[in-house]
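Case study B.
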Amino acid sequence: MQPKKLPRLKSTFSVDCVIFGVDDGVLKILLIERNEPPFKAWKAIPGNLVRDQEDIDDAAKRILYELTGLKDIYLEQSYTFGRTNRHPQGRVITVSYYSLIQKTDDIRPVTGFAKTAFWCPVHELPKLAFDHREIVEKALAQLKHKINYQPIGFELLPKRFTLTQLQHVYEAILEVDLDKRNFRKKMLSFGLLESCQEKQTGGSHRAASLYRFNKKRYHQLATKGFIFGL
Amino acid sequence: MQPKKLPRLKSTFSVDCVIFGVDDGVLKILLIERNEPPFKAWKAIPGNLVRDQEDIDDAAKRILYELTGLKDIYLEQSYTFGRTNRHPQGRVITVSYYSLIQKTDDIRPVTGFAKTAFWCPVHELPKLAFDHREIVEKALAQLKHKINYQPIGFELLPKRFTLTQLQHVYEAILEVDLDKRNFRKKMLSFGLLESCQEKQTGGSHRAASLYRFNKKRYHQLATKGFIFGL
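Model:
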């Protein structure tokens, strides 16, 4: 998979984006398939070179948009990968970013070298370009760390949701099955959830209570940190 | 403080190191004073350009050694700073690293542009080169986050220490006064400390009990995380 005799790259910084989404209880990431030789048909996370006069944070936003059409995504810096041999065209140090978003199917490349953009379960990843698997693994570890210390879910769930829906988000990210009673008890103890005083309608199961996030408490916990404490 | 007409740099990656040490209850960081024009007399954290064929982690170790004489320091990647105007000689993206070490006075520049290396309290920092203050602040925030979620102190304290000594480390890093009784109760509840069944000798105060870390539990908590929960 290592192409030969490649032109040396002019720029030597790149950014790469690891975009997580939860789909029906499964954690997925956004991949692209490249359309140009010598990397034709390679699967990769969205990433490209930073322009000379471009801040790296701006580059990450621009490149994510170009390759996937995603806009206004809050990207957090993940890690910088600087091994000398990580790219076949020369020395490229890449700064990776990550984000957990509400999964949308409205993704398509706008410009650049992506033929398609698509969601892939993190545990069914194809062979990825360069050191992209390592980049994904680092971001995944950070996401798992974060969910243990900060409330997560606000951006992923509908405004009103059941405790089961919230539990599925945690289970998808942590890749474990959680005990229903413990999860509920713990989650309710944080003062993070408010009852909507309403039951879910429709569905064949026993109607479940609907909750919403207490935004103030959510932001308080996001700043101060908490421990979910698995 | 912005020199004019500087030669453009050849390399465009650098690394910078934020080295924390605790000295008599005060959190300090290691600074250098540069000795060459146009940056003569500038104060900075130890940092320099990455070589063409050098991994960034290796570069951080090399540069820290060259500028301060420190060796075998475990450096953790902190953050990457990539604003276009952060360096007067052109586009330089810097990857910062940080470490918390037992403060040593055995520091002196080995080679390179440092005239001296010295410890400075984090709250008495002089004007620093480039965006080094921002780099220090980011690392400091990360250190404070870390002490809330992982045991810290192993590397900073003598083998046998008093609870007061441990409390001073926490107070120095968190920059708060902690309640003695609560601190003791909490610390002892983690199963992290073992009594040496011995009292501190010497000193004019009432002899305090000596403790040591339970290494197994320490590493367990370091991996699994805990919450100090201020």
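Residues 87 and 172 of chain A are 32 Å apart (CA to CA). The remaining cases will be described in the next quarterly update.
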